[in-house]
Design goal:
single chain; 13% helix; 2 helices; mainly beta; globular; 8 strands
């Protein structure tokens, strides 16, 4: 019974995203279907950080949120416009590689970063950085 009460308390708590890191099918992806799900790091109203995995549809799965130390150097992401599917579309318009090995969303706590950003590591060793609000993209080799 204690677990059910704890789950209900968590369901009633507002969780704010700090970061999302994609799990890629077989380690290399070419399209949105290759992103199986995301590891989320979230912050509760009580400033407790939790980590859990949630599968992307049509897959089903969610791990139990576990407490983790709150990461330093990133802001809470309250909202963003460019989802991972759109970020992958933008990635394919660039000449930085044809596949990705990692995709992650975070908002670095630095004055020059004014929005959350997607980081997509490519099969050619480049990193594509995409603004999660503006959709502006750059390729860092």
């Amino acid at each position: 019974m204690k677990t059910l009460i704890e789950a209900n308390k968590l369901a009633e708590t507002t969780l704010l995203v700090l970061s999302m890191t994609g799990k890629i099918n077989n380690g290399v992806g070419k399209n949105k279907e290759d992103v199986l799900g995301f590891d989320y790091v979230v912050k509760s109203e009580k400033n407790q950080c939790l980590k859990y995995y949630a599968a992307n549809p049509p897959l089903i799965g969610l791990t139990k949120p576990e407490p983790v130390p709150c990461p330093l150097g990133i802001r809470v992401i309250k909202d963003y416009k460019v989802n991972y599917e759109k970020a992958i579309e933008i990635f394919h318009t660039m000449n930085c590689g044809d596949a990705f090995t990692d995709i992650a969303l975070s908002w670095p706590l630095t004055p020059e970063v004014s929005e959350p950003v997607w980081h997509i590591h490519t099969n050619l060793g480049s990193v594509v950085v995409i603004g999660a609000d503006s959709g502006k993209a750059s390729c860092e080799k």
